[in-house]
Amino acid sequence: MSRENPMTVRSAPDRLLSVLSAFDHDHPALSLTDISRRAGLSLTTAHRLVGALSEWGALERDAAGTYHVGLRLWEVAALAPRGLALRQIALPYLEDLYEATHENVQMAVRDGDEVVYIEWISGRSAVGVHIRVGARWPLHATGVGLALLAYSDAASQEAYCAQPLAVFTPHTITDPATLRRVLAEVRRSGVAVSSRQVTEDALSVAAPVRNADGSVIAAVSVVVPERDAQVPALIPAVRLAARGISRALGWQPEPDKQPTRATR
């Protein structure tokens, strides 16, 4: 049974948050004992806090006696301004991208060294990676992550490249020099292509989404089976969706520079 360190004073909000933080995508259902252990709380304290959270609707208990995140908490989380505003504005463009490709379409934002998926539209393709809204992946292993990392500042990129890079398949980028070259190519071309990095059968094509001041705040991608990928055909469709969302957010691309004509 977990015991709290008597020398450590934890506030009530901190303990409540530790209970909620016990849940993640790898641990969506937990027993009271599991919650106590993962939150670092005594069983008595965990029982009291879980009871309060369940009464409010943040947690729900199933017939087996295990706890899950409750719908009330999902309702509150959905109000997060960054994700909510982006989803509302982006959805028509994401739906158009789906209609153009009939493939899996997704949108993600950056949170630290990870991407967080804020929208996912399932296509006809059966690829090995199954993403839920709210799921997280390392930046270097996904198309959306590469698009977001490529347009971050140089110091942020170097800090990311300097740390150990998680491996998911033999094709996952693990060499910092290779990652730097990939990021440079993303900036040059304006799109990111990630092939077989998370699973052996998936390829994604991603493009950045900009806000009114031109900052990259999100990325859009299409995920397809690698064996059937028609990358040249996917790139313009993904670019079009990303540019449409960016314009809806107030971004105005710089006009193409025309050669000046000499006056007589």
Automatic annotation (TrEMBL):
Statement: the UniProt record of this protein carries the keyword Transcription regulation: yes
PROSITE patterns the record matches: HTH_ICLR, ICLR_ED
Domain of life of the native organism: Bacteria
Pfam families in the record: HTH_IclR (PF09339), IclR_C (PF01614)
Molecular function terms from GO: DNA binding; DNA-binding transcription factor activity
Residue ranges of domain HTH iclR-type in the record: 10-71
Entry-linked SUPFAM superfamilies: GAF domain-like, Winged helix' DNA-binding domain
Domain IclR-ED span(s) in chain numbering: 72-251
Annotated GO biological process: negative regulation of DNA-templated transcription
Keywords of this entry: DNA-binding, Transcription, Transcription regulation
Protein name, UniProt field: Transcriptional regulator
